[in-house]
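#lab-general

N.A. 3:47 PM
ok so I finally got the sequence cleaned up, no stray characters, all 315 residues accounted for. can someone with queue access submit it? mine expired

B.Y. 3:52 PM
send it over

N.A. 3:53 PM
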Amino acid sequence: MPPADASPTSEDRARPLRRRPSWQLPAIVGGYLAAVTLFMVFVLHLSVSPERLLLLMLIAALVLGRARLFLADWVPFLVLFLSYEYLRGLGGKFGMPIHDVTSLERVLAFGQVPSLVLQQAFYHAGSVSWYDIGATMFYFLHFAFPLILGYLFWIIDRRTFLRFSRALIGMAFAAFIFYLFVPVAPPWKAVPGVVKIIDHTLPSFTDLPGVPVPATVYHWLTPNAYAAMPSLHAAFPLLGALFALRLWGRRAWPTLLYTAGVWLSIVYLGEHYIVDIIGGVIFAIAAFLAEDVLSQWWAGQAADRLSAKSARPSS
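B.Y. 4:20 PM
back already:
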């Protein structure tokens, strides 16, 4: 029997250490967030609000031993994100003329309005179908998806999270300026016959009869009914998919499937035109590229400062 303090042999030194697969941690955390979110919505009948997501993510950060870093990175991000949500609600109160892009939609869709066509084919007034619920879920994950995806970025590569958060906030405030000066009516307001389906689907799985719904931060935010163009429901998932593809490559293809599901859902629900989606795509790609240019410029500036400091003669 070798002595207890025997040094490792050359064979031991050559043996590679077993490392946890790179997908394991994000899969566990992503599964935890998804499972708890679905439990909140379908069992507890609670909406997925920012403060609830923040609490869920903080619990995971505590388990990972990164709670202080989480608060330092996420509190400013969420404050800016909620500031945008608040300002967006004010955008429709400045008296700017409301624009109707239905004619442009008909040009792109060969004389049709896709929201109206889809609802005539699939929507049944007075009843709620499974795909109505599914489309509503896609619609209301508009806020949760970028936060959950951003959290996965933060766990795997903090630099990617910081770049994603900069692009997301910049894109949101750029869209707010557009909403302020060019308010656009959604299909359910501008096209006769288009139904605002979420008014009929939302109570079916987010309310319990006789049970008061706890107030969330959304109760103090005023929605803007004329913030249709560009569609941030289209832009947020696409921006997340672009960063995910850069970080994970082909393994990020589910984010593209989710993005396509959101686009189909917002048209079917009567919330957005295809024209709005195109606007959202333009904003997302522009934000992605602009953040890339900004990061490269900032890295160049930092390198120049470091070079100048190292070249300075020491006293």
